[in-house]
């Protein structure tokens, strides 16, 4: 894993340092924001979960009541009432519409049902027997549909939120464990490179200074030697002796003669 | 001649009356119903039923069993019994037996017509029809595009033809509400059946007129209650009441103007036989009315078996079987849906 947090391959210049620092700042801010978003989504998630549990329980009861209402209707109006009602239907009167709701930045689908057809006052199903039971059965099933539509909304929101939370958490973790360390490593690398360059420069400067000094000393040495030679030459000219002797004289003169007391 | 049927009835009707009485002995008793109510699952029900007359029809069904399968197989048994009796019958018993099934025939015709109007598939519709009400040309009902053609092409050959011509003119056929048409046909059928029984005379006429009068009155009450608050006008309502029965004509006048259940109750309490039914209900409640009517019907049907040498036993047997199948459906649904506490709400014990 440590191999993953390498650094970016950049040219280690001061400009790049500025750029990478700016990116680090952006990453930090993004990390904080995404964490907040993830927390908000998780809160919503828990609420929806609670609602789903209670709705499912009530749905179990309601479905039981409505199937029993159907049994009562079948008992009184004859077993065929199912087919009679089915054959008499033209189109559905209860319709479900879906719309989008924005929750903490996530678009959740929400279903609601509308009663499109007019309440059929003229519905004479089971006129001779069982009409009342048929109407009661219809009322029971309308209630069941209400609960089912709500449950469908809640479950789709649940799934969508789940996806959204997973994605957000993935991004948060990615920023925290990959992007930021990478950027930090890059910054330290650039700084290191810059320091090294500076050191190189300094070193080079010092070296050059050293050379210059030696040059100067050499020149001084050669100048001194030249001056000595000049003096020897003068002496040679004055006394008419060879340079060598002159030099020897000079050097001897430079030395102390025992013979000479003063 | 009334009173001398003992001499001549057994020549033609003796065998079949014996058969019907044998079937009646095979109806489920209170003990059977108690056992069935104690069942925990549909397989238990199947096991209990295999000891009764329904055994051979249910034993080949694979589990998991479904409530609709149980009802289907029991209905199949009823149809088999009926067909057996119909084959053996002579006139006028065979016409009588056919009259019993015209009610189901009307239901089937109305179902297929509705389905065709809404463009459904004919084969599916045929499967949904009641088996007792099938007739040969029923599939051709789907061909007709509107009601007039329907009558001209198909219905004129069926036994239902006179009901159509009597009460419905061709303009009415087109824009009549399907339920009103069904109830008008049924009214014509009841009146026709009543006249036929009167013609037969003797004990048959006496017992059948009592049973049919009860049916007509019960339909009148149901129509009144179910049309409260709908757009059905009073005149339309009056047209759907039959022309015989205890409530005819004064009861019908009063029922036609009723606007809620308490008014209906006030009307019905003037007639002693129905007073006891309505006494069982508390004020404002009408849920138990259907069960009360079923109980009263079963009581009268059982009484029909007390006399001999008449055709009403066949009618009574068919109706009692239908009630038994309804009971079985109720019990199986309660067991399947885990609502055992509601079982006794609607089971009508036959004996």
UniProtKB/TrEMBL annotation, chain A:
Keywords: Ion transport, Transport. InterPro entries: V_ATPase_D (IPR002699). It comes from the Eukaryota. Transmembrane segments: none annotated. The keyword Transport applies. GO terms for molecular function: proton-transporting ATPase activity, rotational mechanism. Pfam families: ATP-synt_D (PF01813). Belongs to the V-ATPase D subunit family. NCBIfam families: V_ATPase_subD. This is V-type proton ATPase subunit D. It comes from Arachis duranensis.
From TrEMBL, chain B:
It comes from the Eukaryota. It is a peripheral membrane protein. One of its GO terms (cellular component) is proton-transporting V-type ATPase, V0 domain. The keyword Ion transport applies. It is found in: Vacuole membrane. Keywords: Hydrogen ion transport, Ion transport, Transport. InterPro entries: ATPase_csu/dsu_sf (IPR036079), ATPase_V0-cplx_csu/dsu (IPR002843), ATPase_V0-cplx_dsu (IPR016727), V-type_ATPase_csu/dsu (IPR035067), V-type_ATPase_csu/dsu_dom_3 (IPR044911). GO terms for molecular function: proton-transporting ATPase activity, rotational mechanism. SUPFAM superfamilies: V-type ATP synthase subunit C. V-ATPase is a heteromultimeric enzyme made up of two complexes: the ATP-hydrolytic V1 complex and the proton translocation V0 complex. Belongs to the V-ATPase V0D/AC39 subunit family. Subunit of the V0 complex of vacuolar(H+)-ATPase (V-ATPase), a multisubunit enzyme composed of a peripheral complex (V1) that hydrolyzes ATP and a membrane integral complex (V0) that translocates protons. V-ATPase is responsible for acidifying and maintaining the pH of intracellular compartments and in some cell types, is targeted to the plasma membrane, where it is responsible for acidifying the extracellular environment. This is V-type proton ATPase subunit.
């Amino acid at each position: 894993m440590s191999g993953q947090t390498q650094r970016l391959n950049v040219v280690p210049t001061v400009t790049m340092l500025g750029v990478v620092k700016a990116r680090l700042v952006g990453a930090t801010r993004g990390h904080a924001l995404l964490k907040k978003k993830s927390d908000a989504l998780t809160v919503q998630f828990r609420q929806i979960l609670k609602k789903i549990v209670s709705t499912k329980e009530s749905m179990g009861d309601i479905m039981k009541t409505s199937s029993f209402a159907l049994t009562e209707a079948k008992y009184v109006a004859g077993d065929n009432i199912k087919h009679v009602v089915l054959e008499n239907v033209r189109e559905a009167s209860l319709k479900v519409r879906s719309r989008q709701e924005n929750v903490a930045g996530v678009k959740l689908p929400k279903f609601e049902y509308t009663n499109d057809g007019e309440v059929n006052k003229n519905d004479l199903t089971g006129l001779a027997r069982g009409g009342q039971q048929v109407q009661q059965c219809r009322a029971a099933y309308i209630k069941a549909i209400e609960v089912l539509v709500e449950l469908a909304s809640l479950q789709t929101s649940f799934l969508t939120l789940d996806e959204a939370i997973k994605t957000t958490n993935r991004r948060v973790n990615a920023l925290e464990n990959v992007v930021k360390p990478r950027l930090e490593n890059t910054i330290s690398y650039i700084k290191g490179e810059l320091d090294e360059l500076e050191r190189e420069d300094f070193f080079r400067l010092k070296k050059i200074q050293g050379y210059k000094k030696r040059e100067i000393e050499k020149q001084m040495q050669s100048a001194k030697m030249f001056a000595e030679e000049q003096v020897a030459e003068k002496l040679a000219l004055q006394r008419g002796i060879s340079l060598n002797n002159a030099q020897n004289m000079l050097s001897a003169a430079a030395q102390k003669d025992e013979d000479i007391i003063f | 001649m009334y009173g001398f049927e003992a001499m001549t009835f057994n020549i033609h009707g003796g065998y079949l009356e014996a058969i019907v009485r044998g079937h009646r002995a095979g109806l489920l008793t209170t003990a059977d119903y108690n056992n069935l109510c104690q069942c925990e699952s549909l397989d238990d029900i199947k096991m209990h039923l295999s000891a009764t007359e329904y055994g051979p029809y249910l034993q080949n069904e694979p589990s998991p069993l479904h409530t609709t399968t149980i009802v289907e197989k029991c209905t199949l048994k009823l149809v088999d019994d009926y067909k057996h009796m119909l084959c053996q019958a002579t006139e006028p018993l065979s016409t009588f037996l056919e009259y019993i099934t015209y009610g189901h025939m009307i239901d089937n015709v109305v179902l297929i017509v509705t389905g065709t109007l809404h463009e459904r598939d004919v084969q599916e519709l045929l499967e949904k029809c009641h088996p007792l009400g099938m007739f040969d040309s029923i599939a051709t009902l789907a061909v007709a595009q509107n009601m007039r053609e329907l009558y001209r092409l198909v219905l004129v050959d069926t036994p239902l033809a006179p009901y159509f011509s009597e009460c419905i003119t061709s303009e009415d056929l087109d824009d009549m509400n399907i339920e009103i048409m069904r109830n008008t046909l049924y009214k014509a059928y009841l009146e026709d059946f009543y006249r036929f029984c009167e013609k037969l005379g003797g004990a048959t006429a006496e017992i059948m007129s009592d049973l049919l009068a009860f049916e007509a009155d019960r339909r009148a009450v149901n129509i009144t209650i179910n049309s409260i608050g709908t757009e059905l006008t009073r005149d339309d309502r009056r047209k759907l009441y039959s022309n015989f029965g205890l409530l005819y004509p004064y009861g019908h006048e009063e029922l036609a103007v009723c606007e809620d259940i308490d008014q209906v109750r006030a009307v019905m309490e003037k007639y002693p036989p129905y007073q006891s039914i309505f006494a069982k209900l508390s004020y404002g409640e009408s849920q138990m009315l259907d069960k009360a009517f079923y109980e009263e019907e079963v009581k009268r049907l059982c009484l029909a078996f007390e006399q001999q040498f008449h055709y009403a036993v066949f009618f009574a047997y068919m109706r009692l079987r239908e009630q038994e199948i309804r009971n079985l459906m109720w019990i199986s649904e309660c067991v399947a849906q885990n609502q055992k506490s509601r079982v006794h709400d609607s089971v009508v014990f036959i004996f």
